[in-house]
Amino acid sequence: MVDQRRADEAGLELLFCNTYHLLLQPGPEVIAEAGGLHRYMQRTRPIITDSGGFQVFSLAHGSVFDELNMKSRKNASPNLLLAVSEDGPVFRSYRDGRMIELTPERSVQTQKKLGADIIIPLDELPPYHIDREALKQSVLLSHRWEARSLREHLRDLRQQAMFAVIHGGIDRELRQKSVEYLTALPFDGIAIGGSLGKDRSELLSLLEFLTPLLPKKWPTHLLGIADEESIRRAVPFGIDSFDSCYPTRAGRHGTLLTRSHGRVQIKSRKWERVFEPVDTTCDGFVSKNHTLAYLHHLWRAHEPLAAALLTLHNIQYMCDVMREIRERILADDL
């Protein structure tokens, strides 16, 4: 949707690449032959890859399940997650139906071929609504998978860092046990994963409890959260980095994030004759070169360029938010 070089120009410091989709297409062997993701994409800034587990478990419930169901004419479950065992999950490719077993070792080997700077160990993603015993067993399984992932990683470091993924849902006892177990292992940083609550209030309550338990020497990443308010309220707890498809998904669905106009639904007729920059406070490519009226026209005309420009602007907006937060931290204002 957006050339990553444009995203770099907007200020994107860390790019998250999806191991699950890259495993299926074009395949890690192709990317390794190209010299890794940096050379394959011509990116010089840092890259992080996930384990692939989030998308695999979302085949049974969550975002990937919903997306595939929306694409299904009969609205029937694709049933692509076949089994979960001690070895790892087994699933079918949504591209060609082939069966794939994603063990902790294979996940790490795949990420080694991709050549990201930061990699993530395989973990299980249980749903929010799960009984405590099942959640406990899931946390223990994730711990075993993460330990196996770490062993595989340490066999061949390749100047890559591996972040542990803390689990336990909103259960504070399980979260604390997860911190104690994983921080005793030689990881390089912490990612907070799993179910993070049903709303922002539960998320912030969890972070308030959890972050004081984390090692100060390790960077901390919050997985799957990147809306502006959550970021602004999570940073004071010590969260260093975030990831989410939220800004780009909003752009693809016709929403612009702006300071001068708030949230803009570009399809609305109210923008048809607004011949002013997308955001008068923004110095990015889209705001400098295009008006709200023009983007409205592109969207109403179903031009693919519309979604690309909206997406690029939202990336710029969130990069500007993060730049402002960093400046406030350096000025001891946060």
Automatic annotation (TrEMBL):
InterPro entries: TGT, TGT-like_sf, tRNA_ribo_trans-like
One of the GO biological process terms: tRNA modification
Domain tRNA-guanine(15) transglycosylase-like: 7-333
Superkingdom of origin: Eukaryota
GO molecular function, one term: metal ion binding
Keyword entries, A-Z: Glycosyltransferase, Metal-binding, Transferase, tRNA processing
Pfam family, one: TGT
PANTHER family listed in its UniProt record: PTHR43468, TRNA-GUANOSINE(34) QUEUINE TRANSGLYCOSYLASE
Name of this protein: tRNA-guanine(15) transglycosylase-like domain-containing protein
